[in-house]
Amino acid sequence: MVDQLSRIKDIVEGVHSHRSHCIAVTSGKGGVGKSNIALNLALALVKHQKKVVLVDADSNLANLDVLLGVNPNVNLLSIVLDDLRVEEVIYHHTSGLDFIPNSSGNRNWQALSDAIKPKIFEVILFLKRHYDFVILDTAAGLAPMSIDLTMRADEIFMTTTPEPTAISDTYAMIKVLDSHKKNLPIKLVLNMVYDASEVADVYQRLSLVLQHFLGIRIELAGFISYDERVRRAIHLQKPFILSFPETAASEEILQLAGSVLSSRMVVSDFHAN
Ligand SMILES: Nc1ncnc2c1ncn2[C@@H]1O[C@H](COP(=O)(O)OP(=O)(O)O)[C@@H](O)[C@H]1O
Ligand SMILES: [Mg+2]
């Protein structure tokens, strides 16, 4: 009965509950830094004393467990396939971050994902009731599951590098998302940039074509420098914000977290009045 009641409450409150904020980190092209940004952003929010759960929502090429250097034996799919409860698949990392891993290399992922989609949405709603932030690391590109999850987030961090191929895939991805639903809360995160002028240049070019061809204004959420220590941290299997807290990428991720928190403060102030 209690379970049923909380489920009804979830449905009534919807995904856009004010108490919690769901950020989907996504991209058009693969390999642009989504997983590293999602993971280190989640840890930066933990540093700000927030209750955060990070969900590996990429069942094709899940790898957050590798980045964290942990070896969980259950994952998001266990909820659907083995009937486990959400609490049973949450990994409590020593940093204070809660984390739901995923399984990798599912040959039948497409068919599977259609069958389990409603259940995964329910899981996200459950998490939104229990955490300040739900961070989703999604699969790159136009996979239906990824698009559906991304569209349900409160904020979408569209990640790209300055490479022309990544930029054109970003444009294509935003175009597809916009054709599904107008006015999505998409913000740009530029990764592996060399300097401030490159940030300005890429942001200006992308925002011009988005405005001109799709009539979309896009905000810049933040940027992360190209930083060798990001790669070192991956080899160490210890997130860069923990292994190299002073490095440029760590400072920039903290800034990104700071801007997420300050825009949230404005939103909650607004709702309080
Ligand atoms: N800021 C950065 N500086 C240097 N290398 C980076 C940076 N971000 C990502 N990388 C490199 O890019 C690779 C892909 O990153 P990853 O987070 O796995 O991307 P995605 O999740 O988008 O596929 C990493 O293995 C790392 O070598
Ligand atoms: Mg990834």
Structural write-up:
The chain is an alpha/beta fold. It has one domain: 3-Layer(aba) Sandwich (Rossmann fold). It has helices spanning 2-13, 34-47, 64-68, 76-81, 109-130, 144-152, 164-180, 196-214, 228-236, 240-243, 248-272; strands at residues 21-26, 52-57, 91-92, 98-100, 133-138, 155-160, 186-193, 219-225. A hairpin with a 5-residue loop joins strand 3 (91-92) and strand 4. Helix 2 crosses helix 11 (248-272) and helix 7 (164-180) runs parallel beside helix 8 (196-214). Bound molecules: adenosine-5'-diphosphate and magnesium ion. Magnesium ion binds at residues 34-35, 58, 63, 137.
Question: In brief, what are we looking at here?
Answer:
This protein is of the alpha/beta class and 273 residues long.
Key phrases:
alpha/beta; binds adenosine-5'-diphosphate; Rossmann fold; 8-stranded mixed beta sheet; 16% strand; binds magnesium ion; 273 residues
